[in-house]
User: Fold this.
Amino acid sequence: AQYHRAAARVKRVRTIRAAPRAMDAYPRRFPISPSLPMTPRDTLLLAGLAAIWGVSFIFLRIAAPDFGALALAETRVLLAGIALLAYAIAVGRGIPRFADWRIHLTIGAFNSAIPFALFAFAALHIGASYMAVLNATSPLFGAVFGAALGRERISRGKAVGLLLGIAGVAL
Assistant:
């Protein structure tokens, strides 16, 4: 009997580890292609997104001293999670599977919770415009750290992209 319980436990662990990645659970509705032209609607949506991101740093600078840095970051992540869950249900994607909780937790922590907390603490000491400039450099730092860790090779085209990114941040 003890052998059968252990075998069942091992089978469950293998099943969980063999579960598809979180991104595989959601097939792409639209193919991503660099050849698709941007429509005026796309341009307006992109400008709106840029405005929302820019205003968030002003909001952080105003709210962090009164609300508290960590509470502010937690509230942002909670509201974003609720909004994303509502969107997933509204478009018919449903609730993500519980088997993928480790993947979702890791991605959420590194892509949202930790940066939001660090920006909220930074808002206590530096200005909103400086935070926005630091945020704009994050893809550049990601590429450089990826190359330094040996995970990403910087080709000539990527080097040109990095230089254009630096010029764009400086602008």
User: Anything to note?
Assistant: The radius of gyration is 21 Å. Residues 13-23 have pLDDT under 50 and may be disordered. Residues 137 and 169 are 7 Å apart (CA to CA). The first helix runs from residue 2 to 17.
